[in-house]
Amino acid sequence: MTADPVREFEAYRQELLDLLGGDDPLDVLAHSPARIEVRLRGIEEVVLARRPQPGAWSVKEILGHLGDTEWVYGYRLRLMLTHDAPGIAGYDQDIMVKGLAHNDRPISMLLEELRRLRGLNLDLYLRSRGPAWERVGRHSERGDESVGLSIRLLAGHDRRHFAQIEGTLAEVMT
Fold it and tell me: Is the pLDDT of residue 170 over 80?
């Protein structure tokens, strides 16, 4: 899990697809918020706000990023489902995480945001399943991506960040 999403977008894309494997992306997306919540149950806020090293994200920041991703993908996929090949802007996830100060937010709010947004987006993905998943958007960094590919990437993204949460906890809880 080392590919940079901007500079190495093809390797990053493949990494996410490999993490998903042959699993149903909607199943992964449906279960990720509860899986994260169970894993974090009973861990103190101060531990969840601890960065394992300078420049690395804390668990709270990882969760904030997952919530940010739900906002972004929800918008992107709504555009793709309703417009013909819309432009899809990339964004700097580090600037967003830092600028939105996720470490200052209660873990309960971060989990609730992820759970609610994921539920709303998952409903859209389920309702649009079929030929609509072939619709594309033109990503500013990665080129054309279909709705179906975007959903598969999002599920792999969940798995990538769950592993990051595990690694971060291993470092900050010792």
Answer: yes
